[in-house]
């Protein structure tokens, strides 16, 4: 995989730049600009190198149809504001654009093509569609790690027709994930949460063979608590998971990876209720587990203290209610403390974890925070991502 930083002849070159600008929208207002902010360094670099930029991206799931509400117009306007440069939205059909007059028709150096998923050929990974788009550029750059687990035309097929490079954000993402999967500084710990074990089972199984500690928190910890013979009341849990849990416990023993789950919990009778600390054998049938308790927090923070590398994917509890956010906040504070002392390399990812860190204004206090979602998890599973494979 070659980084665009290593390609110095960019002056006046037409760059096809695949970005993930799939930001949340409320009408035509962007509610979170994180994904836009993260790719600004690549755009600034290309502008400095006097390249001509054609941005490819998508918003939402229009399923190959033109959906007015999923236009890239608000994103185009946001990019203009942040770059302080004119960005031209090309709303005409890509199939009608002729490469020879593309830039001569307009005065701008930065263009953004309308939502690439308005075309069914994109998700069909259509080779002819990709070749047609490739005719618009001289060089292709993928700076959309979060889309790189999709074998779509703008991710997987275009690199077959043009010299292809990774963007600065994709480089950062892959380098951070390599440090927690292959270039590991031990001891290494994973804190993993979420409501369903089935969605994370392959991640857990892959990491058990590489990590020293796997700490199970959040909704999925309830399955472990029940499996070990405790009542979990009316707590969230996934059905038919005993076989998976048995497999995880067995594999962790074989690989000498410590598996840690809550020793005490915070419960309530409903999501909006007050909190109460309980040991595992004290949970009533009308209570639900909504956070980890003080003994568990103490155990986890001690493990973090003794770790050199940490991966965090999934909050410890129902952090949306401050009564049940304490466990997650204490985990974040301990990682930040170690980070500031340069005693740990920290990576966090997953939508809820990123939301929590945003709420705490702590995103910049970690070595790397991934917004990549599915691609992040598939990389941790050890899968080959089509977007990375195409660049290689």
Fold topology:
Blueprint: E1 14-19, E2 25-26, E3 29-30, H1 34-48, E4 52-56, H2 73-83, E5 88-90, E6 110-113, H3 120-123, H4 127-134, E7 139-143, H5 153-157, E8 164-166, H6 168-181, E9 188-192, H7 201-208, E10 213-216, H8 219-227, H9 242-254, E11 258-260, E12 264-268, E13 276-279, E14 288-292, H10 294-305, E15 309-313, H11 326-340, E16 345-349, H12 351-359, E17 368-370, H13 374-381, H14 386-391
Parallel strand pairs: 1-4, 1-7, 4-6, 5-6, 7-8, 9-10, 9-15, 10-11, 15-16, 16-17
Antiparallel strand pairs: 2-3, 12-13, 12-14
Helix pairs in contact: 1-2, 7-9, 7-13, 10-11
Task: Give the structure's gist in a few sentences.
The protein is of the alpha/beta class and 392 residues long. Helix content is 35%, strand content 18%.
Could you characterize what this model shows?
This protein is an alpha/beta fold. It folds into two domains: 4-168, Rossmann fold (3-Layer(aba) Sandwich), CATH 3.40.50; 184-381, Rossmann fold (3-Layer(aba) Sandwich), CATH 3.40.50. Helices cover 35% and strands 18% of the residues. The protein has 14 helices and 17 strands. The strands form four sheets. The chain has a six-stranded parallel β-sheet with strand order 5-6-4-1-7-8. The protein has a six-stranded parallel β-sheet with strand order 11-10-9-15-16-17, sandwiched between helices. A hairpin with a 2-residue loop joins strand 2 (25-26) and strand 3. The N and C termini lie close together (5 Å). The model has no long low-confidence stretch (mean pLDDT 95).
């Amino acid at each position: 995989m070659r980084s665009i930083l290593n390609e110095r002849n960019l002056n006046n070159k037409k760059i096809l730049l695949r970005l993930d600008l799939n930001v949340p929208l409320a009408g035509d207002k962007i509610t979170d600009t994180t994904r836009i902010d993260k790719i600004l360094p690549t755009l600034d670099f290309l502008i400095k190198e006097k390249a001509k930029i054609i941005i490819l991206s998508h918003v939402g799931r229009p399923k190959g149809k033109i959906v007015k509400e999923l236009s890239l117009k608000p994103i185009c306007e946001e990019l203009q504001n942040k770059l302080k440069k004119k960005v031209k939205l090309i709303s005409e059909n890509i199939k009608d654009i002729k490469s020879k007059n593309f830039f001569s028709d307009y005065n701008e150096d930065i263009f953004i093509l309308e939502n690439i998923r308005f075309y069914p050929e994109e998700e069909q990974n259509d080779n002819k569609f990709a070749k047609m788009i490739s005719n618009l550029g001289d060089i292709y750059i993928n700076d959309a790690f979060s889309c790189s687990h999709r074998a779509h035309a703008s991710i997987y097929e275009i690199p077959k027709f043009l010299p292809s490079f990774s963007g600065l954000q994709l480089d950062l993402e892959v380098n951070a994930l390599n440090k927690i999967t292959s270039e590991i500084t031990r001891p290494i710990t994973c804190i993993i949460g979420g409501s369903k074990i089935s969605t994370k089972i392959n991640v857990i199984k892959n990491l058990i063979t590489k990590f020293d500690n796997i700490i199970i928190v959040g909704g999925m910890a309830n399955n472990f608590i029940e499996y070990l013979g405790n009542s979990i009341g009316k707590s969230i849990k996934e059905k038919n998971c005993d076989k998976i849990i048995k497999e995880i416990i067995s594999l962790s023993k074989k690989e000498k990876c410590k598996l840690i789950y809550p020793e005490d919990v915070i419960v309530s009778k409903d999501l909006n209720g007050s909190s109460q600390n309980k040991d595992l054998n004290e949970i009533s049938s009308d209570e639900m587990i909504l956070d980890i308790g003080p003994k568990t927090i103490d155990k986890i923070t001690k493990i973090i203290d003794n770790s050199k590398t940490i991966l965090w994917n999934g909050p410890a509890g129902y952090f949306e209610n401050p009564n049940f956010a304490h466990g997650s906040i204490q985990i974040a504070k301990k990682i930040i403390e170690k980070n500031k002392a340069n005693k740990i390399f920290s990576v966090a990812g997953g939508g809820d974890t990123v939301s929590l860190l945003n709420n705490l204004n702590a995103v910049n206090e970690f070595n790397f925070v991934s917004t990549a979602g599915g691609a992040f998890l598939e990389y941790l599973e050890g899968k080959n991502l089509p977007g990375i494979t195409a660049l290689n």
